[in-house]
Structures are given as C-alpha cells and as structure tokens.
C-alpha cells in the first residue's frame, strides 16, 4: 500500500540534509521532487498544486522552532499538509441516532460494495456490539443476493432475504420495517452497481435513498481506478447526498493517488479503506497514519513530536547558545542534556525511534540504557559546582566522595569522566549548536561501551 509513493517521497527526505534555514531557493528542488512523486502516484493535479502551494507557504512562513532542524521542520510541514488534504482526522459513522441506523452502499459494478457490507457488518458487530441486519436490492444479478447472504453469514450478521421479483423500493422498505420490528441497531443496504452516467440507474438510487432515508450514504470506490475514482465520486455526490467514502482495494493499489485526492476533491471524508478480500480486511481511515506511512517515517515523526512537546525550549536554547559562544561544554551542560533526553522518553524510547540505532545489534543497544544515563545524572549531581565546571580537578579524594555520594564505585566515576572527556572533545568540533547537533551526535554520545558497569 502506497509503496511506490512512500519509497519515492522518503527518498526525497533522505537526501535533504544540512540546508540551514528553509528559503525559497533551497526548498525549490525538494518541492519539485515531491511534485514528481505525487504525480507518479496518480494524485490529482489540482491536489498536487494545492498541496505544494500550502507546503511552500508554510515552509517559508512558519515560526522557527529551535528544537528542530530545518529538515525536521520541513518533514513536519509536509506531513501536516498531507494529513489536512486527506481530511485531517478519522471520520466515523454516525451511530448516535435512533436505531435502526440505515447505511446505504452505492457505487459502480465491482467496486466492492457487497464485500464491504460484509466487512462493515463484522466491524460494527465486533467493535460496537451492534445487532445488524443486511439486505440486498441488487435484483439485476441473481447471484448478487446469494453472495451477500453468504458474506453476511460469514460476518456473523443477519440477512433479510429479498425476493428478486419484488420492486427494489419495496425490498428496501420491507427490510427497514423488519429492522424496526426486530430492534436492529443497524441496517446495511447493498445496492446494484451503476455507472454514474446511467441516468435511469442514478434515478433509481435516488428513489431508494428517498424511501429509506439513510443516515449514512457511503460511496464504495475502487482505489485501482485512480483518477477516475475521483471523478466517479464527484458525479455520485451531485445526485446523492453522500456522507462518506469506502475506498476499496487499497491493498492492490501501489500508487495511492485516490486516497490522497478523493477527500479534497469531493469534499467527502474517506471513512474506511478496504485492504483485502477477507471480511476482516477493513480499516477506519486515519489520514494521520496514512501520511506517516507515505512519508515512510512514522518513527521519526513521532520523535519530532516528542521533541516538540517535551523539550524545555528555554533550556534547549541555553544549551545551544552556550555551545555557540564556544564556552567549554561542562558537566552542568551535560546534566541539562541528560535531563532533556529523559524528557523525550529516554534513551530506550529514542533507540526504538531512530531507524539507524534501532538496527544495531542487541548487545550494543543493551549498553545504552536509561539506567546508565540515570547513573550519570546522579554522579554529576554529587559534584560541587566547581567540579562540574572544572572536572579536571576531580582527583583521588574527590572521586571517592563523589562515588560515595552517588552510590557508585570509583571505577564508575573514572569511567564516566573518561567518557565525558571524549564527549567534550566531540562537542568542541560542533560548529552550530542546539538540538540539531544534539540529535545528530546522539549516536556518538551513547556509543558502544558508554558508561556501563
Ligand atoms: P460490488 O459489485 O461492488 O458488490 O463488488 P464486490 O463486493 O462483489 O467485489 C468485487 C471484487 O472485488 C470481489 O472479487 C472482491 O473480493 C474484491 N474486493 C472487494 N474489496 C476488496 C479489497 O479491499 N481488496 C481486494 N484485494 N479485493 C477486494
Ligand atoms: Mg455487489
């Protein structure tokens, strides 16, 4: 799902590093590459243009957040805009009405309507404990009614058997009557496939809609039809008041264009996506998750959020400026770093989120842990102010006192000081300060062998 788009977009991001502030010039080529990726994914041109205009304007006008690198900021902007264009948040079905909640499924032949009725029935029964009745008004293909009957059985929902020689409107009304009498929570109505260009059939669906007044009118749309899916949705929406879209066969659609374009162009939210033929292959559509998936950087994105939310901005600024001024990086600064690191979920949380580090062997990873970090904090806290600023004065008796105060051994203090010296040397090499470098050097900071007992 979204494999190609995800591969090409995350590739764009992998290749942007060290751009400094975001400016018209230095984002131009990135925007161009994103444009190509989106067009190749069959995202509608209108949507591509809108998306890029928004990304550009946001990238140039956003307030600089000192906690993030320009690349991280840019990634965040792209992600936000992707989410917004797909509809911001998951839209659920409106179940807060007097039952039975009538859900009408419409769409073209083969879009996945009947399959989706089964899936939705199972979903609502399992997740919301609803009592569900399904019926089919697809009298044009004898096998269609039978198909739903079987699917309903598999989904564990009830089926109202319609006789093919009855009028479509009457079947729909009878089913609704039945749902009322038997106190069903939900009535799912499957319909025959129709072309949006077929006037007679479009009138028929209008009449059905009028007769049973559904709370939800869901357009079932095949993602594989790409741009066409968007046009079909638009036409259906002019005839019927749709309340949402079920985008099917997203599992087979390697491009993903429909998922991105649909909601913006039709003004209708995608409520569910079908991701397979089996009746459990239905997912509520979460723009946020899809955007992360497309960017192929779910973990990095959550890391960015963690840094944004949890890092003490004032402290981060202080660290940055102390480094910029070329001040010696002392143990007080280090203590600040350690505390900031803990704020964003600690090393263990961080390791999980950084793809590079996540791939390291277990024995290496096990050496970087929050316990050893906490121990470092305690050792620094056992030092006097003078010792923190001038660690070189820490000799024999001071070491013994610090070890005693921190509940560690002199050997630990030694090892810690050695490590700190290495880090200080590393910090001197840092040109620009701030969280950016802190993140970049995190790997070195918690490198193999770093402070273990
Ligand atoms: P309808 O004519 O709209 O009722 O379409 P059907 O429900 O009969 O589905 C048509 C075909 O699409 C069937 O072979 C389904 O198994 C298949 N199908 C439906 N939804 C999905 C989906 O989400 N993923 C995949 N891979 N196949 C699907
Ligand atoms: Mg069908």
UniProtKB/TrEMBL annotation:
Its EC number is 3.6.5.4. It catalyses: GTP + H2O = GDP + phosphate + H(+). It comes from the Bacteria. Keywords: Cytoplasm, GTP-binding, Hydrolase, Nucleotide-binding, Ribonucleoprotein, RNA-binding, Signal recognition particle. GTP binds at residues 107-114, 190-194, 248-251. It is found in: Cytoplasm. GO terms for molecular function: 7S RNA binding; GTP binding; GTPase activity. Residues 269-282 form the SRP54-type proteins GTP-binding domain. InterPro entries: AAA+_ATPase (IPR003593), P-loop_NTPase (IPR027417), Signal_recog_part_SRP54_M_sf (IPR036891), Signal_recog_particl_SRP54_hlx (IPR013822), Signal_recog_particle_SRP54_M (IPR004125), SRP (IPR004780), SRP54 (IPR022941), SRP54_GTPase_dom (IPR000897). Its main location: cytoplasm. The keyword Glycoprotein does not apply. Involved in targeting and insertion of nascent membrane proteins into the cytoplasmic membrane. Binds to the hydrophobic signal sequence of the ribosome-nascent chain (RNC) as it emerges from the ribosomes. The SRP-RNC complex is then targeted to the cytoplasmic membrane where it interacts with the SRP receptor FtsY. Interaction with FtsY leads to the transfer of the RNC complex to the Sec translocase for insertion into the membrane, the hydrolysis of GTP by both Ffh and FtsY, and the dissociation of the SRP-FtsY complex into the individual components. Part of the signal recognition particle protein translocation system, which is composed of SRP and FtsY. SRP is a ribonucleoprotein composed of Ffh and a 4.5S RNA molecule. PANTHER family: SIGNAL RECOGNITION PARTICLE 54K PROTEIN SRP54 (PTHR11564), SIGNAL RECOGNITION PARTICLE SUBUNIT SRP54 (PTHR11564:SF5). Belongs to the GTP-binding SRP family. SRP54 subfamily. Composed of three domains: the N-terminal N domain, which is responsible for interactions with the ribosome, the central G domain, which binds GTP, and the C-terminal M domain, which binds the RNA and the signal sequence of the RNC. This is Signal recognition particle protein. It comes from Candidatus Erwinia haradaeae. The gene is ffh.
């Amino acid at each position: 799902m979204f494999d190609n788009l995800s591969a090409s977009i995350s590739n764009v991001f992998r290749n942007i590093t060290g751009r400094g502030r975001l400016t018209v010039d230095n984002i131009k080529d990135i925007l161009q590459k994103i444009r190509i990726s989106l067009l190749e994914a069959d995202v509608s041109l209108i949507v591509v243009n809108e998306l890029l205009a928004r990304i550009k304007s946001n990238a140039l006008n956003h307030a600089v957040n000192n906690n993030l690198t320009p690349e991280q900021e840019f990634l965040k902007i792209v992600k936000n805009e992707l989410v917004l264009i797909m509809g911001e948040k998951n839209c659920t079905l409106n179940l807060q009405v007097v039952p039975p909640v009538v859900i009408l499924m419409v769409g073209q032949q083969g879009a996945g309507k009947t399959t989706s009725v089964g899936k939705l029935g199972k979903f609502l029964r399992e997740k919301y404990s609803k009592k569900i009745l399904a019926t089919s008004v697809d009298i044009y293909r004898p096998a269609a009614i039978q198909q739903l009957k079987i699917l309903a059985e598999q989904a564990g929902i009830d089926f109202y058997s319609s006789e093919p020689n009855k009028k479509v409107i009457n079947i729909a009304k009878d089913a609704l009557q039945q749902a009322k009498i038997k106190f069903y929570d939900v009535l799912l109505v499957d319909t025959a496939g129709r072309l949006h260009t077929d006037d007679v059939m479009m009138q028929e669906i209008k009449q059905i809609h009028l007769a049973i007044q559904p709370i939800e009118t869901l357009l079932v749309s095949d993602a594989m039809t790409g741009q066409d899916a968007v046009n079909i949705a638009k036409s259906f929406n002019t005839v019927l008041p749709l309340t949402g879209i079920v985008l099917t066969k997203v599992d087979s659609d390697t491009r993903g264009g429909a998922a991105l374009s649909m909601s913006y162009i039709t003004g209708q939210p995608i409520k569910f996506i079908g991701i397979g033929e089996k009746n459990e292959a239905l997912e509520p559509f979460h723009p946020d998750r899809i955007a992360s998936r497309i960017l192929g950087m779910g973990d990095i994105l959550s890391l960015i959020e963690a840094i944004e939310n949890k890092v003490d901005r004032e402290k981060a600024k202080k660290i940055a400026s102390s480094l910029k001024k070329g001040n010696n990086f002392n143990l007080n600064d280090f203590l600040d770093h350690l505390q900031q690191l803990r704020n964003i979920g600690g090393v263990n949380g961080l390791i999980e989120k950084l793809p590079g580090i996540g791939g390291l062997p277990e024995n290496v990873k096990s050496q970087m842990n929050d316990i050893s970090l906490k121990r470092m904090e305690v050792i620094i806290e056992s030092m006097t102010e003078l010792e923190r600023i001038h660690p070189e004065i820490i000799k024999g008796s001071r070491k013994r006192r610090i070890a005693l105060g921190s509940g560690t051994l002199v050997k630990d203090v030694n090892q810690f000081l050695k490590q700190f010296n290495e880090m200080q040397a590393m910090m001197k090499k840092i040109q620009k300060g701030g969280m950016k470098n802190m993140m970049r050097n995190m790997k070195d900071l918690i490198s193999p062998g770093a402070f273990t007992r």
